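Q: Hi! Curious about what ADP-heptose:LPS heptosyltransferase looks like structurally. Here's the sequence.
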Amino acid sequence: MTSFSDQRPPRLLVVRNDKLGDFMLAWPALAGLKAATPRPHVSVLVPDYTAPLARACPWVDEVILDPGDGAGREARCALLARLKAEPFDALLTLFSTPRIGWLGWRAGIPLRLAPATKWAQLFYNRRIPQRRSRSEKPEYVYNLELAEALVDALGLSPPPRPAPPYWPLSAAERAAQRDAIAASLGLETACPWLFLHAGSGGSAVNLTAEAYATLARDVDARLRATGEAPAWVLTAGPGEEGHAEALAATLREAGLAAHRLPPSPGLEAFSRRLAAADLFIAGSTGPLHIAACLNRPTAGFYPSRRSATPLRWQTCNAEDRRLAFCPPDDAHEADMTAIDLDDAAARIARQLQPSPISEPHS
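A: Let's find out. The predicted structure is below.
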């Protein structure tokens, strides 16, 4: 095994090349790798869509674009040539596919580690049994365990497990984000801001717009009863802007102070704006997991099927900052109408109640 040092740090390639939320749940693992001794050089292989956040990640040194399964021969060969040219010591694949396993093997990366699932594991010389299909742990914990196995396999000194926030922004930057949004929308910075993302990104089972409107009205009334008049900020993903504006209009008609988040110049800028939220409400989508990486309080709505439970897709913010809601045991796993919205509103309102240790809204 190569002897690593500060002068010869290990060079790692980490692959998480699927959806945005999946990539955000890899940040704890990336933080863990980066804290090992000697401090590794960490590259990530990601699709173009998540690349802006990979470049913003404080635990990533280099971003390599994955052209995807449908790429032509020229793009595939260019990627293979690049991986061969870089002296990677290890490949860590957080979500294993045959194409990526074959790619790492062809690139000659000496240590290749992945979950021991599917026939793609044949391309790896370190395989870690995890049984992720049982959904017994959060996804980010499964990722952390793989990172810890890699640290051990390389003979590095393991760090303590990292703690939130996994995307640490300064208080000054958060204040600047609030000031910019306040100036754009005419909001008071002293009142609680609830960000609401009603879109699903085309994958997550979510509440309907009508259910989110009911929830928001209830939360708003509960907060106003305590003397807090909140501001609602509606966010949207690509192609969801019209739905977000319609929901904002519905809330305004009900007397709520509802606004659309101003358009952002890109995914990183949008993500940084989420640092301004006092609480972020959404289904199990990419933006929910971005807010969690920023350690903002979150309220997530999930189906109860095994592959998508609140435990499996738990947000990676601090435990006292996350709420999760799903259908009860006696309802169909994807029946989001069975979620008790009255209970959810009460818990969300309590989460926003000031306490001696609460950070100020500003």
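A: A fun detail: The chain has two domains: 11-153, 171-351.
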